[in-house]
Amino acid sequence: MLPLDGVKILDLTQFLAGPYCTMVLSDMGAEVTKIERFPGGDDSRRLGPFINDEGYCFAMANRNKKSLALDLKSEKGVEIFHKLAAEADIIIENFRPGVTKKLNIDYETIKEVKPDIIYCSISGFGQTGPYSQKGGFDIIAQGVTGFMRMTGEPGGRPAKVGIAINDIAAGASAIYGILGAYIHRQNTGEGQYLETSLVDAGLAWTIWESAAYFGKGEVPEATGTRHRRSTPYQSYRTQDGYVTVGAGSQRLWEKFCQHVVEKPEWITAEKYIDLQKRMDNIDELEQDIEAILQEHPTAYWVEKLDAAGVPAGPVYTYDQTLNDPHIKAREMIVEMEHPKLGQIKTIGVPVKYSKTPLQIRSAAPWLGQNTAEKLREIGMDEAEIAKLYEEEVIYNKYREEEV
């Protein structure tokens, strides 16, 4: 039994924000059916690397899902979508605002065939406001939210966060929004419409930065790896790389001085006497710390910091992360069989449940893999399905291999 067993979701999203949202919901047990245009499908299908003409990137965010390739610009395609919607619990889309209305699959239309539907839209800038019609990829949202001005080294060019943070923020926001709406429906029987955007969701994560601006008018700038309000709390150069140190509290600072760098005199030094003084002299503090840490390799310092009870860790390259024994012990890398890619690895489930552990049950589908299956579920027979294939209303990339 999984938390969302029995919940049916129609997924009209592509690239990352929406697919990440539906991936997590599918891990929770929801039956997610991707409605994809053809012959291209979800645009992330064209992102390499490729194995046997199938993209690895698509496979990462679309596990546990089914694919129905459907022409939503055709009258028959829309009719089929309405039949599917009548049996669905949740619909998620990330078209530009206004597109679903043109296609006759918007919330107001679907509500007529499924009054308690939960309908979620994810867009770049939201459904309202002067920028609502603008295209909004992650890089655009990182610029608008100010992330690129507060990332990187001081005085450097604007830098994007290393991952697609606004995409993931929007997907995560949609997840909790949908679950809240689902609980509301369980309690009242009412469905509803909800929407979020890459900009809104990313901006909502600027907790410390908004506090500084609203409280004192401070505009956050790039600080490298430094914390904006605490130190030592950053990465420091070692003999062979970098080590992260989190010793911002007075207690941890004193442990760091006494047992790690063995400089107890820093505790009472005027320039480092309290947190504010350490922040005022952060450049000099960094130089003093690195002068000592560069005498030994990262592993030496991590062991010493751990022994002193000071939070610390190595600064890995991504390949080192994926090969770390702790990551493997936490089952954050999972192997599975893909029908075209073969044996693949994917990132595991980050939330560990004691009663209903989430499951990676199936690999991402090829384009249209489940088209016929989903049409049978809404009562269509083989002759009707064959005719829809002939009329190019539906599609299956490897249909000829299956026939």
UniProtKB/TrEMBL annotation:
GO terms for molecular function: CoA-transferase activity. InterPro entries: CoA-transferase_III_domain, CoA-Trfase_fam_III, CoA-Trfase_III_dom3_sf, CoA-Trfase_III_dom_1_sf. It holds the Pfam family CoA_transf_3. Gene3D superfamilies: Crotonobetainyl-coa:carnitine coa-transferase, domain 1, formyl-coa transferase, domain 3. The keyword Lyase does not apply. SUPFAM superfamilies: CoA-transferase family III (CaiB/BaiF). The keyword Repeat does not apply. Keywords: Transferase. It comes from the Bacteria. Transmembrane segments: none annotated. PANTHER family: SUCCINATE--HYDROXYMETHYLGLUTARATE COA-TRANSFERASE. This is CoA transferase.
